[in-house]
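note to self — DONT lose this again. spent like an hour looking for the file last time. sequence + predicted structure for the chain T wanted, 168 res
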Amino acid sequence: MIFDRFSTSFRDSLSGLYSEAYFAEVFQREWHRMLRENDSLSILIVHPHLNIDNPNDQLSFKLISEAIEASTKRSTDIVCRFQSNEIAVGLFNLNEEGTETIVNRIIQSIEPQLSELVSNIDLSIGAINVLPTYQIQINDIFERTEQLANMAELKGKNNYQLEHFQVH
């Protein structure tokens, strides 16, 4: 079929998630939709703390990717492989409380289901909820979300840091 040839251009071969390029395209479009609708969105960046060059860790990354994708229930949610060894999630039309629900769902689905298959699972999740404005640069949101993931790592195994981003 003709579409089979094109499907690989927006899917990552290792994780099966959307590619970062496709994610960026969808995120940009949704950002502008949230601007028009005056509604908030969230970004999650998940650090699985794996060595993506190790074949065993590649399998773990794939299993974790599948569990994260299964934790997002809405058709508008988008999950991608991000910067080679991370996973990014875009959640649209969602407030801070809904974001925290999804973060907890991700942690709860990964710990019991995968702990027998993947030894020593350790995730750090940075999550940010934002009401888009013309004063906010999208790159700033992603940089802050990375910082939050690093802060979550300092809190210990399988932790997250959530923030509501506002222009001051």
